[in-house]
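quick one: adenosine-5'-triphosphate bound model?
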Amino acid sequence: MADERKKLVEIQGLDITFNEGKSNETKAVQNASFDIYEGETFGLVGESGSGKTTIGRAIMKLYEPTNGKILFEGEDLAKLKRRGKLSKFRQAVQMIFQDPQASLDLRMKVKDIVAEGIDVNHLAKNDADRSKQVEDLLEIVGLNRDHSSRYPHEFSGGQRQRIGIARALAVQPKFIIADEPISALDVSIQAQVVNLLKDLQVKQGLTYLFIAHDLSMVKYISDRIGVMHWGKMVEIGTADEVYNHPLHDYTRSLLSSIPVPDPSVEEQRVPIVYDPTDELDGRDRQMVEIAPQHFVWAGEDEIAKYQERAREFGLID
Ligand SMILES: Nc1ncnc2c1ncn2[C@@H]1O[C@H](COP(=O)(O)OP(=O)(O)OP(=O)(O)O)[C@@H](O)[C@H]1O
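yep, here:
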């Protein structure tokens, strides 16, 4: 089924291998292919070390692909070399980090942190315009516009994450990579920050790559989800399908490990244990569309198993 939506990011056969000496090679990302459509939130989940951040940093053009390519608005990032185009790209793609404490310079006033991108890209006409832009941004992210002369330590963790979001928004980006943006926050604050991100997405027409290990939170914010395991994308589908009707064995095991609030349901659950050595059986695997827009990393002889599951879930006839 062809998708009519406009692709903002296209990842095609991406490999990223880190070489720290010949005997120490890490295949952080292997043969990943997926698109991110304009206006959507693509959630990337997987355990620590599965390659999520590496993909995010590669889209920021901080890592060169070992193989494959990444397109942004149809342009191959590897070919973005001219200064003008490069700075336009750097403005369009922004990142929000996990730990606002570590990602903000604590010696700087909030107004100077938020205005960093404004200054670098010469987006303010004069000092008064710069101040107004900063104050407007603070208000947009739910902070007091009169607090721009304060330092980061005068804010709570959740408020500091809002400062990080204001800093990202200052350059009017199109695409934001949010790398575990709520993992360091109190549970009570997490939903507020996610709701702010959702609200900003609608108001400012943003596209997100939302990276997290917690599948239930990713489900809440994402339109589609990609599940990563050992550097490979093992399943891609709508958030609802991946969460409620997971096809790949690894996704099923990931979901079966999420605690359920109801103890009677918890007791009845049979944990699914995924044997990761399955990945090493030498099968020639690739992404196969098992149900419409629902892809699974599978070898030829595994397709029937996944189709059977999709049929049981009513995803295909
Ligand atoms: N700059 C680097 N040099 C060498 N190895 C790296 C580098 N960055 C990441 N790796 C390795 O690549 C693999 C994938 O790491 P990555 O940070 O992308 O995983 P992740 O899924 O984002 O994990 P986490 O949730 O812990 O951040 C890991 O084995 C990691 O040790």
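The chain is about 35% helix and 25% strand.
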